[in-house]
Amino acid sequence: MGDDALFAPMLKEYGLEDLHRISDPPRKLYAAFGLERGKTLSLFGPTVWGRGLKACLSGHRPRKPVGSVWQMPGVFLLHGGRLLNTFRAKTIADKPDFESFVRVGLGETVNNTT
Question: What is the number of other CB atoms lying within 10 angstroms of the CB of residue 80?
Fold first, then answer.
């Protein structure tokens, strides 16, 4: 939702600066992909607080919110005009295993057992 320039330092920090991305301030794509506004528990529930505390203890600090804090996130893998995989967060603490997300989207078998 925010300006691409705001996210450039964070993307570089995580080695993601070469990925294509889209800024969507009017949230038209959010709606098209079925991403809704969050409910109170999906933004402030115990799972979110727990994940936030774990992140802080690992050295990650909260950043100033950009855009609507109520907008639920999602990840979509598109290639060649086709939607290959989707992830819609149930809470703002949810995040996919990105490597598995891409592998499954590309039709690879993923063994999640360790």
Answer: 5
* Partner residues linked to 79 by β-bridges: 82
15: phi > 0 → left, psi -120 to 50 → alpha, else beta; which?
left
How far CA 99 is from CA of 8, 39, 110, 111, in Å, comes to 21, 28, 9, 12
Question: Which amino acid is it at 113?
Answer: T
Which position has the token pair 């964070």?
10
What residues pair up with 82 in beta bridges, in sequence order? 79
Supply the pTM of this predicted model. 0.72
Mean pLDDT within 51-55: 93
- Which one, of 101, 27, 55, 107, lies nearest residue 92 by Cα? 55
| Interatomic CA distance for residues 84 and 87, integer angstroms | 11
CA 78 to CA 36: how far, in whole Å?
20
